[in-house]
Amino acid sequence: MTGDSDDFLDIKQAAKLLNVSETSLRRWTNSGALMAYRIGRRRERRFRRSDLFAFIAAPSGNAKDGREQHITKGASESSPAQSTRNHGNHFCGAYGSEASAARLAAAFLADDDSRDVVKFLLAAPKLRARVLKLLHARSSPMSGLPRGESLVADVYRDSAKAQIDYWRKSFDSALARGATSLRVAADTRDFTARTSFATLIQYEADYERLIAQRYPVATLCLYDARLLSGRDTLHMLKAHGDTFRRGVETLFD
Length: 253
What we know:
The protein is of the alpha/beta class. 44% of the residues lie in helices and 17% in strands. The strands form two sheets. It has a five-stranded parallel beta sheet, sandwiched between helices. Strands 1-3-2 form a three-stranded antiparallel beta sheet.
């Protein structure tokens, strides 16, 4: 280990640096609160030292991902109720082709390897098929939940209100079935085809409020860069503040 701020640590070394348990690190990376890189065929986690320092230095009082409680208490764990609430994360990404969109969505969905995770993929049928093909090629189990309940492939509803209602019901149902982690990859092009970009941005704000209050979900909203103006890009980034805490290479293709 060179001591350089950008060298990489394995999960044991990272846990020691933060004085927390490996379980906490897995939870934070699965929720999207902390960036981790996957290497090798076993997709083992590696942590960039500079990301860990930034994580430690994040402003206090952020109840969204529960990190302050874990770091101040060292290796002790929060209660199960605390570990599955108040840490929704909301990212945006942009793609330049259908293949890029599929790669970003599949990688994001596959990045949570929790046993009891439910994943949601919202996109038009052709893109959904490409993403599912990539996930199948990874040959990794989706969840410890009953077969058919760990991945939901669907499309956006016809209004922002209907979509928020869909999420509330879907997330509540998944948690009631035993899920402890939720993950969403959604192609917003499917939503704007039904509404408008302005409606999408308002919906993003409503969704942010929903997940921050109640749900242990990491969400990647994908935007087609070919359709974005400079002003649209600004609105997209402002609606997804968590984006700046995640590696750019996992969000843009």
